Amino acid sequence: MTDYTTLIDAETWAFIERTNTWYPPETIDYTIAQQREIYDAMCREFFAGYPKGVTASDATVDSGGYAVPVRKYEKAGSSPAALVVYYHGGGFILGGLDSHDDVCAEICGRTGFPVVSVDYRLSPEHVHPADFNDAMAGFAAALASSDLPVVLAGDSAGGNLAAAVSHATRGQTHVPIGQVLIYPGLGGDQTTGSRIVHAEAPLLTKRDGDFYRHQRTGGKEISGDPTLAPLQDTDFSGLPPTVIVSAECDPLSDDGGAYRDAILAAGGKAVWFNEKGLVHGYLRARHTVARARQSFTRIVEAIAALGKGEWPCP
């Protein structure tokens, strides 16, 4: 049993306790509708507002006849080098434009880049590949609406989708110039490493992850599909420069290292940061926990560098 009292500091424990007040661990046993209601209320509790000069506008893009809601953030007076397409987390069953509204606004405010948040369809009403198809549609629409190069970013489930889009668009005329994946679940080994060591981690357990995966596939066991699990691809060449930022105390953390290693072995450029003492979902702690604040700065700086065609790590 992992001793989290020695790994997690007091600030992070306060964040965990605050989160559990709004989204108790037993929520995973509620109905999907109840889980969404509780999750949305929690996100409102942590909402931090918009930086000065940032505004947002809503629209839709077409995904095979389905109108995908998107929200575009822009900063007044900026001369952006790139555009960010962001995919939100939530286990593929939770979240939307509002759940990560302030995160996207802050990325826009701190980089000066426009950010397009994509509200892909959720399971179980729309099982995979609906989520992936909508992610692709959001990327294509962003390219069509701007001459700026695109950096992909996303957290948790959204990190999975960002990577899947990067894999699927290789060889096309327009490809992302970089990707930043925040505590992503990429379909790594379910039987070893962090999935076992951190199976009972605060805020995300292995059981939680298994539930989300089951909902996403409609209960089917699917293998060898990189649009579902990018780590199951057989080719990691030609991917954009990649920054992966994981939380140490998270069943998904080893996916970051495995993905970095696969890209490096294929001759690509990738770096992995496994943030000490942090837990899944720590973006909501970026204003109250020093470690999370530092990690968010790392994330923003990586997006800014990749958008300028630079490598963020010496």
How would you explain this protein's 3D organization?
- The chain is of the alpha/beta class and 314 residues long.
- It contains 10 helices and 8 strands.
- Strands 1-2-4-3-5-6-7-8 form an 8-stranded mixed beta sheet, with helices on both faces.
- Strand 5, helix 6 (157-168) and strand 6 (178-182) form a beta-alpha-beta unit.
- The radius of gyration is 18 Å and the shape is globular.
Structural class: alpha/beta
Instruction: Please identify which CATH superfamily we are dealing with.
Output: Alpha/Beta hydrolase fold, catalytic domain
The H/E string reads HHHEEEHEHEHEHHEHEH
As a percent range, the share of helical residues equals 25-40%
Question: Main traits of this protein?
Answer:
globular; alpha/beta; 314 residues; 8 strands; 10 helices; 18% strand; Rossmann fold
Write the layout of secondary structure elements.
Layout: H1 4-7, H2 10-22, H3 32-46, E1 54-63, E2 66-75, E3 83-87, H4 101-111, E4 115-118, H5 130-145, E5 150-155, H6 157-168, E6 178-182, H7 194-197, H8 206-217, E7 242-249, H9 253-265, E8 270-279, H10 290-307
Parallel strand pairs: 3-4, 3-5, 5-6, 6-7, 7-8
Antiparallel strand pairs: 1-2, 2-4
Helix pairs in contact: 5-6
